[in-house]
Design goal:
By secondary structure, the protein is α+β, with helices and mostly antiparallel strands. The chain is 30% helix and 22% strand. The structure holds 4-amino-1,4-dioxobutan-2-aminium adenosine-5'-monophosphate and magnesium ion.
């Protein structure tokens, strides 16, 4: 007999049909009621066991965490909150789980504790929901771009360049660390002897390669892992995260903003349409969590209302210069309540400033554009004022920066000037510069941090809880 998934089974009208299910025991009550979950839905199936007819040795082993195969008939359930249950005729233990040592008990565990047992946290309601939503969002992204005629490009993970020019790279080498072949004359490492014959690193962004593709295929996107060796131990930074990077020929900054806003709204709506049960559960989880927090730290809105609120209205769009004015004149600033006071134009915005703009001032997502050139990457297009670049960051409530992008500098001379000013050697990016020599054109793109999107949609407060096995400073377990 073929296995039926619980998600499908729960859509059936119970008529005594014979079915086979397999899953993991969540609880076993009164030697009779088995709550089984197979990951296809947040809902458990109640399997009713006739203990007088079952082998006692098996009954003893139906403890939380065990894996079970159950055959039986689907009948209407007298119990509250479920329409059907399976009356078991045959039970088989596929994998036992010693209740004395199984770390997950049928009670609330802290997220911190669950991080330490990330190999088992998939088995909890919260992480089941988070990873189903993560899947739906990944699917939504491909669906969005495919519908619009974009091509999915796989950019390299090992590169020889630093796309952001920020120097936060993990080196890739096969050189024996303890006996690195130094060049005796200049004391530098001989990378000619290394695997690739040059210094290489894990990519921080697929943007530069995506630009090359966009200048031929028109509209492309990447969606892959990226790596940053920044030593930020925050609830929003990972050393390994996934990024979605569209790149579009002929798009200017306004088109770029429209594309990003459409993508975000599409993904959020997709999750609401396809993950209703999981989002309902996550919303309730937040309500419970809020009860343990002081009033001012609680969520202003229930999760689903917040998602609807974001999809149903246009994002605010202002320049960096306007944002600095708002921040400088804010009461928070005047009363000295920012940790980093806003004194004037040119400062890099801190997350407290971003959150003020989004959560206090506009109370909706904000797109900030035209940042000072000196705080942004070399590839952004210089404005006529010679001071600002066509950058855009999208700031989200509770998250801060979720998207970073720009119109690209398509003019060779301007690009060379910026690279020189920022000490980026032309030899390293000769291939990038060639696109500005051969058929250059205006083009734009952005990067959406996948984990930050998942945080927003699920309401999870820590980026470590939306990726299966987080990589952060001093942590690469599993
Ligand atoms: O702003 P970033 O650094 O932009 C780029 O990498 C551009 N090359 C993208 C492009 O234009 N194609 O990163 C883009 C987004 C951020 O807005 C944030 O959401 C996410 O990536 N991000 C991180 N997410 C988790 N952990 C980190 N350490 C992140 N760094 C950036
Ligand atoms: Mg950024």
């Amino acid at each position: 007999m073929k296995r039926t998934k619980i998600a499908e089974l729960l859509t059936f009208e119970p008529q005594g049909q014979e079915l086979l299910v397999k899953g993991w025991v969540r609880t076993f009550r009164n030697n009779q009621f088995l709550a089984l979950n197979d990951g296809s839905t947040i809902k458990n199936l109640q399997v009713v066991v006739d203990f007088q007819r079952m082998d006692e040795a098996i009954l003893k082993k139906l403890s939380t965490g065990a894996c079970v195969s159950a055959k039986g008939t689907l009948v209407a359930s007298p119990a509250k909150g479920q329409s059907a249950e399976l009356k078991a005729t045959e039970l088989q233990l596929l994998g036992e789980s010693d209740a004395e040592v199984f770390p997950l008990q049928p009670k609330k565990h802290s997220l911190e504790f669950l991080r330490e047992i990330a190999h088992l946290r998939f088995r909890t309601n919260t992480f089941g929901a988070v990873f189903r939503v993560r899947h739906a969002l990944a699917y939504a992204i491909h669906s969005f771009f495919h519908q619009r005629g974009f091509y999915y490009i796989h950019t390299p993970i090992i590169t020889g360049s630093d796309a952001e020019g920020a120097g936060e790279m993990f080196q890739v080498t096969t050189l024996p660390l303890l006996q690195i072949p130094f060049n005796k004359e200049n004391g530098q490492v001989n990378f000619q002897d290394d695997f690739f014959g040059k210094a290489t690193n894990l990519t921080v962004s697929g943007q530069l390669e995506a630009e090359l593709a966009a200048l031929a295929l028109g509209e492309v996107y990447t969606f892959g892992p990226t790596f940053r060796a920044e030593n930020s131990n925050t609830s929003r930074h990972l050393a390994e995260f996934w990024m979605i990077e569209p790149e579009v020929a002929f798009n200017e900054l306004d088109d770029n903003m429209d594309l990003a806003e459409d993508l975000l709204k599409y993904c959020i709506r997709f999750a609401m349409d396809h993950c209703a049960d999981d989002l309902e559960f996550l919303q309730q989880r937040l309500v419970e969590e809020d009860k343990t927090k002081p009033q001012e730290e609680r969520n202003a809105m229930p999760l689903l209302e917040k998602l609807r609120f974001v999809t149903d209205q246009p994002f605010a769009r202002i320049t960096y210069t306007e944002a600095v004015e708002i921040l400088k004149n804010s009461n928070t600033n005047k009363k000295g309540k920012f940790k980093y006071p806003v004194e004037g134009w040119g400062i890099d915005l801190q997350s407290e400033h971003e959150r003020y703009l989004v959560e206090k001032h506009f109370q909706k997502p904000v797109i900030l554009t035209d940042y000072p050139a000196q705080i942004k990457a070399f590839y952004m297009r210089m404005n006529d004022d010679g001071k600002t670049v066509r950058a855009m960051d999208i700031l989200f409530p509770g998250i801060g920066e979720i998207v970073g992008g720009s119109q690209r500098e398509e003019r060779l001379q301007h690009l060379q000037n910026r690279m020189k000013a920022m000490h980026i050697p032309e030899e390293e990016l000769w291939w990038y510069l060639e696109t500005r020599k051969f058929g250059t054109c205006p083009h734009s793109g952005f990067g959406l941090g996948f984990e930050r999107l998942i945080m927003f949609v699920t309401g999870m407060g820590n980026v470590r809880d939306v990726i299966a096995f987080p990589r952060t400073p001093k942590n690469a377990e599993f």
